[in-house]
Amino acid sequence: MNAPFPSTPAIPGRDPRLPLKLIVAAPRGFCAGVDRAIEIVERALLKFGAPVYVRHEIVHNQYVVDSLKAKGAIFVEELDEVPDDAPVVFSAHGVPKTVPAEAERRNMLYVDATCPLVSKVHRQAERQVEKGQHILFIGHAGHPEVIGTMGQVPPGQITLVETVEDVADLDFTPEDNLSYLSQTTLSVDDTHDIIVALQERFPQIVAPKAEDICYATSNRQAAVKRIAASCDLVLVIGAPNSSNSLRLVEVSERMGTDARLIQRADEIDSSWLEGVGTVGLTAGASAPEKLVREVVDRLSDWRAVEEDIVTAAEENMIFKLPRQLTE
User: Fold this and answer.
1) Residues annotated in the binding site, as ranges?
2) Any keyword Metal-binding (predicted)?
3) Alpha-carbon distance 175 to 307, whole Å?
């Protein structure tokens, strides 16, 4: 349990009794894929006993990772760090095909916690290649989800596109058999602009059957759009390597409202509230609600907080757990 925050002096030039209006975005925080991934690790620990190894962060949130470490999870970067006889969980971001293939070669017990919406993109990639299409994949280089998706098809059959400017540099013709897919945690607006550029340059390009950006990413961005215009500052709880959290910061800034990414409440500086009457608050899809309440308490140390919730969408998605953990 975190120690109470120390008392903090009043903000210079501000009446500490002056209320701070806090607009909390909804939906925020954990999505169904993150809930499922965390439960997979917890159930694996109960079923197999500690330690259970996890390849890469199960989700991009240090608080979550530390909580699972305390229960007996061991996080590693590569499969060769895992003993042959130890259970291992693959992260929610997905892995290249070579990873489960190596686990099977070593007769390892593994559980795949890949988000079902990411797995859907993986299956689409396989189908597009089977149809002879070269995939233009919209995403951010080096992100685990991008590495995992690009690793579903043979090398040379998928090309990464990060920006609209990248489209002009693509070495394809209008006669080439092309399709596109996208990372699930991108900016809705940025991805739309890239898709438009692809379709203008390659009218023959084949779109996926359904939107790749996941419902949780879209909903959290929509919620920030709803609140940002009414705020002087937006706080986004999330990790610096969390794609969907970084996109929430960008959405607010595009609305003309300053935004700051924080991992925990103790990162907030009282000076940020100087001249601020209304603060917006949201959390990326890997951040637990506990961290939201922690921020509210931190703000209450300095000002009387008047909290309001603005809802952009209702979420009731639930993903099934792998059968090997429910039998």
Assistant:
1) 31, 60, 93, 115, 143, 184, 214, 242-244, 286
2) yes
3) 56
Instruction: List the domain range (segments joined by +) for residue 82.
Output: 32-112
Task: Establish if 184 belongs to a structural domain.
Answer: yes
**What is the average pLDDT value for the chain, to the nearest integer?**
94
At 14-56, the pLDDT tens digits run 455 589 999 999 999 999 999 999 999 999 999 999 999 999 9
Yes or no: say if 87 and 111 are a contact pair by the CB < 8 Å rule. yes
Residue 37 CA to residue 90 CA, distance in Å, equals 9
- Report pLDDT for 18: 80
What is the Cα–Cα distance from 219 to 214, expressed in whole angstroms?
9
Instruction: Report the CATH number at residue 243.
Output: 3.40.1010.20
Q: Does residue 36 sit in the same domain as residue 26?
A: no
Element holding 262 (H helix, E strand): strand 258-262
Angle at 80 between CA 79 and CA 84, to 5 degrees: 85
Residue 15: per-residue pLDDT = 53
Among 57, 145, 162, 315, the active-site one is 145
Q: Does the model's pTM come out above 0.85?
A: yes
Catalytic site residue 145?
yes
Cα–Cα distances in angstroms (integers) from residue 271 to residues 13, 154, 258, in the given order: 11, 52, 14
Summarize the annotated binding site for [4Fe-4S] cluster as residue ranges. 31, 115, 214
pLDDT tens, position by position, 137-175: 999 999 999 999 999 999 999 999 999 999 999 999 999
CA distance 23 to 210: 32
One domain, residues 162 and 205: yes
